[in-house]
UniProtKB/TrEMBL annotation:
<feature type="compositionally biased region" description="Basic and acidic residues">
    <location>
        <begin position="7"/>
        <end position="24"/>
    </location>
</feature>
<keyword id="KW-0813">Transport</keyword>
<keyword id="KW-0067">ATP-binding</keyword>
<feature type="transmembrane region" description="Helical">
    <location>
        <begin position="43"/>
        <end position="71"/>
    </location>
</feature>
<keyword id="KW-0812">Transmembrane</keyword>
<keyword id="KW-1133">Transmembrane helix</keyword>
<dbReference type="InterPro" id="IPR003439">
    <property type="entry name" value="ABC_transporter-like_ATP-bd"/>
</dbReference>
<protein>
    <submittedName>
        <fullName>ATP-binding cassette, subfamily B</fullName>
    </submittedName>
</protein>
<feature type="transmembrane region" description="Helical">
    <location>
        <begin position="293"/>
        <end position="311"/>
    </location>
</feature>
<dbReference type="GO" id="GO:0016887">
    <property type="term" value="F:ATP hydrolysis activity"/>
</dbReference>
<dbReference type="InterPro" id="IPR039421">
    <property type="entry name" value="Type_1_exporter"/>
</dbReference>
<feature type="domain" description="ABC transporter">
    <location>
        <begin position="387"/>
        <end position="621"/>
    </location>
</feature>
<feature type="transmembrane region" description="Helical">
    <location>
        <begin position="99"/>
        <end position="120"/>
    </location>
</feature>
<dbReference type="GO" id="GO:0005524">
    <property type="term" value="F:ATP binding"/>
</dbReference>
<feature type="transmembrane region" description="Helical">
    <location>
        <begin position="205"/>
        <end position="223"/>
    </location>
</feature>
<dbReference type="InterPro" id="IPR027417">
    <property type="entry name" value="P-loop_NTPase"/>
</dbReference>
<keyword id="KW-0472">Membrane</keyword>
Amino acid sequence: MNFGRVQPKEHRLEPESNPFDDYRDTDRDPLVRIFDDYGRPDLHWFGVGLLASLLSRLVSLVPPLVLGIAIDSVFTPGGPAYSLPLVPASWVPSATTDLVVLSAGLVLAAFALGVVFSWVQGVGLSLFSNRVQHAVRTDTYALMQRLDMAFFDDKQTGQVMSVLNNDVRNLRTFLDNTLSGAIQLVVTVVGIAGILFYLNWQLALVTLVAVPLLTVFTLRFMTTIRPLYRALRSSVGALNTRLENNLSGIEVIKTSNTETYEEARVTEASRDYYDRTWAVVKLEYLYQPSMELLAGVAFAATFVIGGLWLVSGPPLFFTGELYVGEFVTFLFMTQRFIDPLAGAGRIVNAYENARASGERIFGLSALPVTVADAEDAVVLDDVRGTVEYDSVDFSYANGVPVLHDVSFAVEPGQTVALVGPTGAGKSTAAKLLLRLYDVSDGSVTLDGVDVRHLALDSLRSAVGYVSQDVYLFDGTVRENLVYGAFDATEAEMVAAAEAAEAHEFVENLPDGYDTRIGERGVKLSGGQRQRISLARAMLQDPAVLVLDEATSAVDTETELYIQRALARLTEGRTTVVIAHRLSTVRHADQILVLDGGRVVERGTHDELLALDGLYATLWNVQAGALDEADADILDALEARDRDALKTG
Ligand code: ADP
């Protein structure tokens, strides 16, 4: 078999760890839980569907029954009188032709009713399963959104997508056909077994011998296939993750010239998926025909014993009389008994498949969430903007310490700048203020209240975050601007855009504020995106601002725009700025120099230069000279602007 250009056997890559294998809830049968948690509001639709499906089964029994009676009573001279179960004898006509018409009419009516019941069954069960699917998906999405940031650091987005899409859809298929099929099967099998016993209990025993055999065989199959399905669902997610990561990183793949490497990785993930699917399919194809074979043997045994009985009287230890019509009915019924039994394999199979999906869905929602509202969470009404870090220690989930004993305080309206080499912990420190993560030790307080005691809503509307990699949603400029401040008026939006120096370039876009940007729209430059995000922050108007400054350089004119926008944005707001270019923090009230997660120096620009430590080194050696030149130009331009404003 050819799996593409790259042969996986020779290019075996290290198997990737998959945290999703641990996110699995196996405590309670997930399908019972689905019913319990999500099925209740629409249970009536399930009831309607199930009832219709049972009725359609029931009416399907009428033709063989009527046929058997007709053969014995109408077509066989000297046979028993024409009598229908549950129908009074006085309703049955006596003329033979009338009996033929009656029989045909009954068969036709049964078929017609069968069609109606099937239709009702389809509608009822589809409504039920689609509604449950919708509820499970939206609920799981909402839960997923509340998971800790640490969860998303694993970058298993493909797995999450696969749970929300494939696994939820898998459940729907199960609820749609399989569940009602299973109930129908049990009712049919038990019901028909009763009829078989009623018709001829001795022959019925011959047919029913197959049942315990099929049951044992099926139970064995279920326990064998369960782990295989779990592995299969995981590999669907792993493949999705790989594809999703590669699509997001396509620029890096192209520029690093790693297409062949990535092809090998995708081939590997796809190969894994193939292997696991094949393991399931192999078992299925062993099981399903075996079930059919067993069922066939049971049918043949019934036919042989019954046939011999008709031809030469009761064989072996059997006793009594058997009529042809009775035997025909018996054989038809046996067929209706055997077929669903043989089909039980498909149901069991679908059940195991859905069960593996259910475990993943509930596994996701069972993940512990640590960053959540405390029970007595405080809502801040009027935020002044005092921020204080007190002896903060922090490490990410991997346990490596990132911050040690970080302490500082910012008064309302002041600006504190975090500077230091890459990896020093600046962004991490800032994220703690937004409570994207919880501190490991110490505390972060806003207006004197520990952020862990603040309602998340309240905290995140008080603290704005302007990140360096601006994420624009697929939509119009307007939609992106008012994101998070949805009730802003047109005038407020334009004012914010003007303050962020974005109004002018937005007006020049093909459709102005209604221009589509983001994934499927106009692509904006880095500087334009930054100004959109500044305008967004202006509209949200938070008391405290966390500013993760852009590293990517923009031309001096754009820089000027951005600096002016920033000056307006930070005016009167407590600001924590993560500075990558020192020129922008010269005017900060306080500068903290972080190195290896510790505050190594603190003070104003001039104090730190005088200290002649790490800051001074960064300033002088790394970028100082250049930045100073840039800064001087900016100062000059700003001064010219101010003069222009005064004279204008
Ligand atoms: P800076 O902003 O100063 O460049 P960061 O705060 O981004 O530094 O990173 C500080 C340290 O924490 C680095 O060693 C980085 O590798 C680590 N780190 C950052 N984010 C995560 C994360 N999500 N999970 C684990 N480690 C992280």
